[in-house]
Write a structure and sequence with these properties.
The chain contains twelve helices and 15 strands. It is α/β, with parallel strands linked by helices.
């Protein structure tokens, strides 16, 4: 049965150099609007849920354009506020081969979202109208005001019986020098409130400061993730392992830890058109499966295929419907390494 799901997060303008040029080579930019919350909630609306974004947009033509774009994605505007003058932006240079993609943020800390005053969001009113809410570590990195909004809203959702979803999404460039130490207590606060968490073994090792004697990545995962679930009383932890192959294809394998056991998706190997936002597509698949009561096996496979399909379209925002994903799960046998 479809649910009412919200995300708390910033709307950003994505400015992309066409093709694979560097900023220093190009002279035109294409823009869209995105953000982790935008990506996750727009995907969930495509799966049939009612999706809300809790955010703040500037009172100018940039805010108008962003609001129009969100409406086009089917995201409800009920919990969107207007105020301030700036929209966060980032520039994207697409990677190719051994050269990684590069994201450069600008104007972010002055954005309408990141300067929202203390009483701008009606926490209890929002919490009383939704079944679940999504937060991410990118938002957590912004400033103390945003962090307070996150924690208060998460607590209110818990008090009203809703589910709290937290995607760790640690970004070193946003936390700065000594970032892991700065971030740890804030991550712990969110994990204490979370029911569903998107994370991997690196989050446990570096952000939470946990230890393991294992060296291989999957062994670290099997050692650390159950410990995280036990320490913070988390129902579901999910994530992906990715490898980049010599022919520039990517291989993705999803995992889900629930009821004291791991479930893994098939390994999916595919070509990449646009990688940005694929992790959000995977997260949306996990949320959808959990909210709809899928089996763990179906949930992790659905999420992995959602992540794969997100690599095949331009822009951050996942565009696949539930029917697209279910069809790919049954028809793309040639892309699955068994």
């Amino acid at each position: 049965m479809p649910k009412v799901i919200a995300a708390f997060g910033e709307v950003m303008m994505r400015l992309q150099v066409p093709g694979y040029d560097l900023l220093s080579q190009g002279n035109t930019l294409n823009y869209t609007f995105s953000g982790t919350g935008v990506n996750v909630i727009s995907a969930l609306t495509r799966y049939g849920h009612t999706g809300h974004l809790v955010t703040r947009l500037p009172v100018n033509s940039l805010g108008d354009a962003a609001a129009a774009y969100l409406r086009k994605l089917g995201i409800a505007s009920t919990f969107m506020n207007r105020g301030g003058s700036y929209l966060g932006m980032y520039f994207l240079e697409n990677g190719f081969g051994v050269r990684s993609s590069r994201v450069t943020y600008t104007n972010r800390l002055e954005s309408s979202f990141n300067t929202a005053p203390e009483a701008v969001y009606e926490y209890a009113a929002i919490a009383s109208q939704i079944d679940a809410i999504h937060f991410c570590g990118i938002t957590l990195a912004m400033n103390d005001g945003v962090r307070q909004h996150m924690k208060t809203l998460a607590q209110s959702v818990k008090e009203h019986g809703g589910k709290v979803i937290f995607d760790c999404n640690y970004r070193p460039s946003l936390w700065g020098e000594g970032g892991y130490i700065k971030a740890k207590s804030h991550y712990e606060d969110m994990l204490e409130l979370a029911d569903i968490v998107i994370m991997n073994e690196k989050d446990a090792l570096y952000t939470l400061g946990m230890a393991t004697e294992k060296q291989e990545r999957e062994e670290q995962l099997s050692d650390l993730i159950p410990a995280v679930a036990k320490r913070y009383h988390i129902e579901v932890i999910a994530g992906t392992h990715r490898s980049i192959n010599h022919d520039n294809t990517h291989t993705l394998r999803g995992y889900l830890f629930k009821i004291d056991q791991f479930i893994f998706s098939d390994q999916l190997t595919f070509s990449v058109y646009d990688r940005i936002g694929a992790g959000d597509a995977y997260a949306s698949g996990i949320i959808h499966g959990e909210m709809e009561g899928f089996s763990p096996e179906q949930t992790v496979q659905y999420a992995a295929v959602a992540g794969m399909l997100a690599h095949t379209v331009s822009g951050d925002t996942p565009m696949a419907s539930e029917a697209d994903i279910l069809r790919a799960m049954t028809e793309s046998v040639g892309d699955v390494e068994r």
